[in-house]
Amino acid sequence: MLERLRFVPARLLQAVPVIFGVTLVVFFMVHLLPGNPALAILGQTATPDRVAALNHQLGLDAPLWKQYLLFLRHLVTGDLGTSISYQRPVSELIGTAVPVTLSLIVFALVLALVISIPLAGIAAGKPGRGRDLGVRAFTLVGQGMPQFWVGIMLLLLLAVKLGAFPVGGYGETAGSHLYYLFLPALTLAIALSPQIIRSLRASTIAVLGSDYVGTARSKGAAGISLFRGHVLRNAAIPTVSIVGVNLGYLVGGSLVIEKVFAIPGLGSLMINAIFSRDFPTIQAVALVVALFVVVVGIGTDVVYTFLDPRVDFSAKERA
Amino acid sequence: MTTTAVATARRAARRPARTRSLRPWYRNGTLVTGLVIVGLLVLVAVLAPVLAPYDPIKQDLQSALQSPSGSHWLGTDKYGRDILTRLIWGARVDLRVGFLAVLIPFVFGSVMGALAGYFGGWFDAVVMRVVDVFFAFPFYVLVIVLVFVLGAGEKSIYLAIAAVSWGSYAKILRGELLVAKKQDWVTAARLGGMSHGRVLLRHITPNVLSQALIYGMSDIVMDILAIVTLGYLGLGIAPPTAEWGSMILDGQEFITTQWLQATIPGLAVVVTSLGLSFLGDGLSDQLSPGRRS
């Protein structure tokens, strides 16, 4: 089993230039600001002393390459700088926000699978028929809805009209977190599921036409037991990479959704940071999120090999 | 977004040669539906000054927050502006920015991808690593940060969207080129003494561009969604210009009393996206039959 993971070191090595590029992009974000970043952050009314002080605090008075090296050295030690608006280490702010956003994403992923797997199965069972077209209509509409608008509509229906859910916030206890996160997670799940359904539907149709499903059918397997026992795992293989790629999209979406539901995660942190021109915080959120995407990419490949023993990312041919 | 790009590129790698649909385009139901929806929307946008019953910006606080009636079919917002009017003018802004935003990444990404695929080597390696770096940032994170850094406004939206989405076109074109450059007719053109530039422009490009075009349709949907989202976050087209995203933001305030206000502009986005999706699917049927699952 473990020898299947031989590809991991090489895959990690492959991620190094990407991570390096990510730090470059995040670093140069500050330098895209027109004019002096410190002045842009503080506003036109700032005194020259304060500008100079902030320049020094941000390390902007050193040559560019030196600034970048310093930036890297700080990163390696986990120092993400000090938030300008909160006057606290950014790593602390990130530390409290990450678990919130992460639980939102995991919750959304679970809900997306709960929605997608049955719908894809239903659609693939009789391609081209009414229920397939129904599912297809759902995916088309689902892809075209602005996520934040879906959130507002769910708020309107389930929180305002029915009063079944809170209109925003995160709750106090673990149980209430789940309750508060349900609507935002459902919003993200609705945005994610069209991609999963499309992929899973196509691969399920392919698997249903294969010989071994014919054999299973001839032995009497049918309906849900056929789907669960013989079809799902094989059909899920291509979907895993779709989910992996879309997790990045999900993270981006969750940043916007957090604003709709007032959830204290990375998204709210970043949006607030943007409106208070809190640059170290913006940089840190962008960095953390990008690193997360890189890690998820590697994780996807690992899951892939375990789901499908035929996939071998290491170059050597196995018997 | 990236998923579609990768999937399209993969499909492209398996395709034997260019094939054309035998069915005339007007018999293609999906394509026609898409054309009709998008055509109507463009018409509404172009004719906004004629169609809209009121001024989209002028405030009339006396008639603020009215429910739908004979004189205001969809009611009025908190400044007394007619919502139907702002919806119509919003189409003008959102469609224009959405269509224009796709141009820069389409051209730049396609050129980079084509060169990378055709010449390979270190150039290919560098371009693809840069694409990987940009793909590491979720779409909205990079768009929001870039629009903030460049300053809110239309120009920043174009640049931010270009930075985020050129990579998909590069991947698609690179995949297409990897297949195309091995074809006999390309070898023949080269042996005939034609320059790389001529082979690329005159012989390969017309054959491989269709996939990028089809992807472009779904990309416009992504861009319009991004523009609306930026408007909702207060980072998009600045008020008081009528724009669907900021209309939803304004409407959210009155969700308990005037739910139509936030609902209607969102429906407009959905209809636009549907039209463009149909158009993309129809084009895909028409330009490369048998390539879709």
Textual characterization of the structure:
Chain A has 319 residues and is mainly alpha-helical. Chain A is built from twelve helices and no strands. Chain A has helices spanning 8-32, 37-42, 48-57, 64-76, 90-125, 130-144, 147-161, 174-208, 211-218, 223-261, 266-275, 279-307. In chain A, helix 5 packs antiparallel against helix 10 (223-261). In chain B, helix 4 (83-119) runs antiparallel to helix 5 (121-136), helix 4 runs antiparallel to helix 9 and helix 5 (121-136) packs across helix 7 (154-180). Chain B has helices at residues 2-14, 29-46, 48-51, 83-119, 121-136, 139-150, 154-180, 184-191, 196-233, 244-252, 260-287. By secondary structure, chain B is an all-alpha fold. Chains A and B meet through helix 1, helix 6, helix 7, helix 10 and helix 11 of A and helix 1, helix 5, helix 6, helix 9 and helix 10 of B.
Q: Which descriptors would you attach to this protein?
A:
heterodimer, A: 319 residues, mainly alpha, MetI-like fold, 76% helix, 0% strand, B: 293 residues, 11 helices
List the helices and strands and how they pair.
The complex is a heterodimer of chains A (319) and B (293).
Chain A lengths: L7 H25 L4 H6 L5 H10 L6 H13 L13 H36 L4 H15 L2 H15 L12 H35 L2 H8 L4 H39 L4 H10 L3 H29 L12
Helix pairs in contact in A: 1-12, 5-6, 5-8, 5-10, 5-12, 6-8, 7-8, 7-10, 8-10, 10-11, 10-12, 11-12
Chain B lengths: L1 H13 L14 H18 L1 H4 L31 H37 L1 H16 L2 H12 L3 H27 L3 H8 L4 H38 L10 H9 L7 H28 L6
